[in-house]
Amino acid sequence: MNNVFINIWKFFKFVHGIISEKMLAGRKNEEVIEGNSGSDYLGIMDGNSFRNFSLVDLPGICGELECIVNNLKNSTNIEYLLYDYPGILEERLRDNIGEIEVLLKEIKSVNSNIQQLNQQHLLFSKEQISLKKTLKKLKDNEIREMETVVSLFDNAMFIQWENAKNSRKVEVLERFLSDVMSKQLALENLNILATRKLTNLKKYPKGKVTNTKFIESNSAPTLSPENPEVQKIPPAPPLPHWPLPNFTNCNLFFPTDDPNRITSIEELD
Which parts of this chain are annotated as the region Disordered (predicted)? Predict the structure, then answer.
């Protein structure tokens, strides 16, 4: 069916070209050009050049007409081609236009999504840069606070740390860490000694103990009687019985009006 319309269109185009060329040739030269064969020729424009139209061109025209006639004869329903087929083509065209519109909407949606993703990626990159700057600032503040504490309580170690921090040698840092660990051990020992001293002072306030050095030195734990190690210790030997003199019958003078005389054991405390 499409071939019929194509052939008809080609034929009318061919005939229209011949008629146009004939009219143009008639304007330029109204006389009949006689050829060598004695036949009559008409002037025809072939592109930009002028050529002669002869009977040789008639077989081509006849072939085109014959092809059109055969296609029309072979068509089973001319009314279908004239009335129904244009509607079918119009419906197909509308369907194709609808598909193109749907495809256009999808393309616009994809483009919008891509722009949103690019915007989100840009915002995420900015947020990531901001978080990195904040984290670096927090780390710098933490390091500055620790260095401030060290400089306040141990300026000598802080100076050593400044020298070790600016160095790129492993030996310098290892030596500094060894000094820090040694000083840490010394501080732990001082902490233990000071804690013991404070405990003893709280347990025995000033004025109740005469020899605090003896108490501090005797810091060994006491053993309970239930301890099996205590039960293995043998008992003490019995004390000897010495004869004591009887002073009840002796006439000794005890002054009673002495102001420094001790009258009870409680006065010894």
Answer: 217-237
CB hemisphere CA count around 127 (13 angstroms): 6
User: Do 42 and 52 form a contact (C-beta atoms < 8 A)?
Assistant: yes
Side-chain-facing half-sphere of 33: CA atoms under 13 Å? 15
Rounded CA-CA distance 161/179 in Å is 11
**CA angle at 57 for the pair 51 and 63, rounded to the nearest 5°:** 150
**pLDDT tens digits for 97-129?**
999 999 999 999 999 999 999 999 999 999 999
What are the CA-CA distances from residue 222 to residues 9, 48, 225 (Å)? Answer: 127, 133, 10
User: CB–CB of 61/14 below 8 Å?
Assistant: yes
Which amino acid is present at 44?
Answer: I
Where in the chain are the domains? 2-75, 89-153, 154-203
**Residue showing tokens 């006389």:** 31
Tell me how far apart the alpha carbons of residues 264 and 154 are, in angstroms, rounded to a whole number. 58
The token duo for 139 is: 């780390």
Question: What pLDDT, on a 0 to 100 scale, did the predictor assign at position 205?
Answer: 75
d(C-alpha 64, C-alpha 72), whole Å: 12
Of the chain, the percentage scoring pLDDT greater than 90 comes to 31
∠ CA 228-233-234, nearest 5°, is: 135
Question: Is the pTM value of this prediction over 0.90?
Answer: no
